[in-house]
Design a protein that fits this description.
Helix content is 31%, strand content 32%. By secondary structure, it is of the alpha/beta class. It has two domains: 2-74, Alpha-Beta Plaits (2-Layer Sandwich), CATH 3.30.70; 122-277, 3-Layer(aba) Sandwich (Rossmann fold), CATH 3.40.50. It has a seven-stranded mixed β-sheet with strand order 10-9-8-11-12-14-13, with helices on both faces. 39% of the residues are buried.
Length: 281
């Protein structure tokens, strides 16, 4: 059994949803769905405390007079049935298709990726994942060492491996996401990915040719120095997970960490940035 907490708000502050999501993650939220002025979070019933939820979210009540929380019990979800009902296959630039295990298609795409999402983020349906996949398809990764920070379902690691990366290290702080990613790596016969339960701060290896980071704005801002530390000079950073209006703030922090912007792309109000690491001399 799960508990679904639906949070409604009217704030126009672009950081407001990110801060709510961070607060929910702090108290053990295992799945999040974001839409306009609403965030739904799923908790395991045995670990849920309504009192704790309201305490953690109390600062938001003071910021937004419309702030509302609705709580309901929901049964265990048949994720295959839900995806089949709500999430058709996604095709990116005619080269890459993301589909569920029960979707059967002829192999007409160069990269046919099978993902069973469960409660992890990254199916290609959300604009940020689509943007990251699109950027990755345009980026040379053959023979390169890649770090996937906040791997979610593992979809970016799968594509990097399929496109010839020599090694991919994927990490996520969510144990359920790590387990889901491992399952998706096996399903796609990916053998050159090292999976770690933890953040980029726990990664000891350096010298990465590229870093993929589809995470929320606040995490990107705090981890930017770590990305630079882990990258080779001339290496690339592809990042998304933030609104278009937040891009300037991320670009500024990136430039302060020896990263120069190569280009930006946008989709449905969300943005992705492509950086290159400059010489620190």
């Amino acid at each position: 059994m799960f508990i679904k907490a639906s949070i409604q708000f009217r704030s126009d502050d672009s950081s407001f949803p990110d801060r709510i999501i961070a607060a929910l993650s702090f108290i053990g939220c295992e799945g999040i769905e974001e839409s306009a002025h609403k965030i739904d979070g799923w908790f395991r019933a045995e670990a849920f405390s309504e009192k704790t939820l309201r305490e953690v979210l109390s600062p938001f009540f003071r910021e937004d007079s419309f702030f509302r929380i609705e709580i309901e019990s929901v049964p265990e979800v048949n994720w295959n049935a839900e995806w089949e009902k709500n999430f058709p296959p996604v095709v990116i630039n005619q080269d890459c298709r993301i589909r569920a295990p029960f979707h059967s298609f002829p192999a007409t795409c160069a990269y046919d990726i099978i993902i069973e999402p469960k409660m992890a983020f990254g199916t290609g349906h959300h604009a940020t994942t689509y943007l990251m996949l699109e950027e990755l398809l345009k980026t040379e990764v053959t023979g390169r060492k890649i770090l996937d920070a906040g791997t979610g379902t593992g979809v970016l690691s799968v594509l990097a491996s399929m496109r010839g990366a020599s090694l991919v290290i994927a990490c996520d702080i969510d144990k359920h996401a790590v387990d889901n990613a491992a399952e998706n790596f096996r399903r796609n016969k990916i053998s050159n990915v090292m999976l770690i339960h933890g953040s980029v701060k726990e990664i000891s290896e350096t010298g990465f040719d590229g870093i993929l980071a589809n995470i929320n704005k606040n995490v990107l801002l705090s981890e930017m120095p770590h990305y630079t530390h882990h990258m080779k000079e001339g290496g690339f950073l592809l990042c998304s997970g933030f609104f278009r209006e937040d891009a300037d703030e991320i670009i500024k922090i990136a430039e302060n960490n020896f990263l120069e912007l190569r280009h930006m792309s946008a989709r449905e109000g969300w943005a992705a940035l492509n950086f290159r690491k400059k010489s620190q001399i």
